[in-house]
Amino acid sequence: MSEESINKKDYDLSILMTSITERVDTACQLIKHIQKQIDDCEANEKVQLIISMDNRSVPLIDKRNKAQKRARGKYLCHMDDDDWVSDNFIKSLLEHIPKAYKRKADVICYKQLAKLNGGKRIIITPSLNGHYPMKLMGVHKDPESKSTEAEGTSPTERVEDHIANYSKIPWQWSCWRTELVRDVVRTQRLESGALWEDLDWIQRVLFEKPKIEYDIDEVLHIYYGDSEVRKNVSEFGW
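Request: output the structure for the sequence above.
Response:
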C-alpha cells in the first residue's frame, strides 16, 4: 500500500510503536503478538500498526511525532518495546471504540499491570480525574492469581490474590482521540530521556482540555520495569 493510500484510509485504531535495532527481538515479540490478534479478529482494515525503528540515529520524539502525523485511526495509542498487551487487547478495543467514538470520548481508559523491579506488581487505573503522581486507591484482584476455590464455598482472602491499585492520569498507552492529539508534538528536545518525553507529551495533551473519557474495566496493557528483560512472555500467562 502506498504512502498516499495509507494517508487516505480510515481505521478504528492506530498503534504507534517505537524501538531500536538492538532490541529488535524484543520488539518483534510484541509485534507478532499484536498482529496475531489482528489476524484472529480479521481486523487488518480496522487497525493501523505504525512501527518506527532505527539505530539510535533518530531521537525518540522525532519518531513519535512522525508516526503520530501518519495516524489515521479514530483513536491512537503509543507503545514501546518494553510494553506488552493482554490476549484480548485488539478484540476488546475494537468492541469498545465505536461506542467511545459515538460518545465523542477524548480518551479510552483501561487498566495497566505494571511489573516493576524486584518482582513487585501494581495495577494502574487511568482517569481524567486521576492523580499525578499516582495515588494508592486500594486493592484489585490479581489478574495472575492462580488460586481456585471449591464450588459453593466462600472465597478465601489471601494476600497473594490481591494487588495494589493506583489512580493516575491517562498516559500515552491509553487510546486518545486522534484528532485531539495528532498535532500535540514537541520540537525542543529534552536530554532527560523517554520518561520526561512522556510527561511532556501528556502535559501538552492536557492543554487541549480533554473532557470525556470512556472506561474499560479490564487490564489490557502490561508494562515491564526498566531493568527487567522480557525473555519468555508466556510465563506470565498473557
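The helical segments are 3-8, 24-40, 60-70, 89-102, 178-181, 194-207.
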